[in-house]
Write a structure and sequence with these properties.
The complex is a heterodimer of chains A (94) and B (318). With 94 residues, chain A is α+β, with helices and mostly antiparallel strands. Chain A has a domain of 55 residues: Roll (Ubiquitin-like (UB roll)), CATH 3.10.20. Helix content of chain A is 18%, strand content 22%. Chain A has a three-stranded antiparallel sheet, with helices on one face. By secondary structure, chain B is mainly α. Chain B contains 13 helices and two strands; from the N terminus they run ααααααααααββααα. A two-stranded antiparallel sheet of chain B has the order 1-2. In chain B, helix 2 runs antiparallel to helix 4 and helix 4 runs antiparallel to helix 7. The chains are: A alpha+beta (94), B mainly alpha (318). Chains A and B meet through strand 2 and helix 1 of A and helix 4, helix 7 and helix 13 of B.
Amino acid sequence: MKKNWPLWEVFVRSKNGLEHRHCGSLHAADEDMALENARDVYTRRSEGVSIWVVESAHIKASNPENNGELFEPAQDKVYRHPTFYDLPDEVKHM
Amino acid sequence: MSEAQIKSLEKQFDDRIARDEKIEPKDWMPEKYRKTHIRQMSQHAHSEIVGMLPEGNWITRAPSLRRKVALLAKVQDEAGHGLYLYSATETLGISREEMYEQLHTGKAKYSSIFNYPTVTWADMGAIGWLVDGAAIINQVPLCNTSYGPYARAMIRVCKEESFHQRQGFEIMLKLANGTPEQKEMAQDALNRWWWPSLMMLGPTDDVSTHTEQSMKWKLKRKSNDDLRQQFIDQTVPQAELLGLTIPDKDLKWNESRQSYDFGEIDWDEFWQVVKGHGPMNKVRMKARVDAWEKGAWVRDAAMAHAEKKRNKKQKQAV
């Protein structure tokens, strides 16, 4: 039994000035083929000016089960937002 | 996990979907949700892939360069749509190889419409107009489905699909306004594709088994019968515009329903084709399996080449 082609995640920058965004994944033998396939699969209608490919196995993702400890602490830190601070209406440009 | 815990998780899960929240790959989901999605999404992907075969048949014989580039682009899109959907399905924990295996052994189904032959050039018109038309009606509601990767894939698919239907209608229009022989060819294609296209919207509501659960998970937003009625109501005026006759003697405008009444669908034919006895089931699967098996040495060679390159790079680094 031969090895199957690994999975790659594809990120495309739609135009300069914007970030690369994840748009899907594909299988390819190596990074060069992944880039060529990404061009054919995800940019057939001028959707991009730049492509990144990353082997999926190299991505470490957070687990939704840990969302509480990861993201909830930010909810009671309202003092990180400008509206937390009481200022008189006369103060302009702030 | 205890049964009560699972019940409580399922309740929370259903509530999230009811609030229009999306489910993402690593989220907890009921096993049935995962299995149903794997089945529907992989069958959708298989349909795109097998769907290339009837049209691929005409690429070399397209009547002009304009038609040829359009047909090539459409078939390439279908390959792309299959790939978006396969990779979205893989996020549910099934491998690409497993899905291929299911298709090739007949365990997984694909849309029955592709088991009909494409015997004339007008079939390219009828497929784009009717088959892609029915597919769009099925697919547009899926852009809002609850599983994030499926919804995102469907948004891409739907954006690209509308050219497919327009190019098909243009072919029909040209033939319908051409010589008597050309018009006859267009009519013949409509005669053959009309009923199978209506069947594409699925069995009638009273026998459809998955509808209720699928509605809850937003895998379905409208029932098969509603979708079919929508398809008929929007397609009949288009046929009139072409000057072609829909092959249904019971087709009639119903003033009180503000919809068309239509004749009985031959569901025996539908189930025969689903069970593998359609005119092209064997030919389609043979073409698909041959392509996969004959491509094995290429896949292996690409992998061997990639490994060789990697080893070379590592040696240079040392």
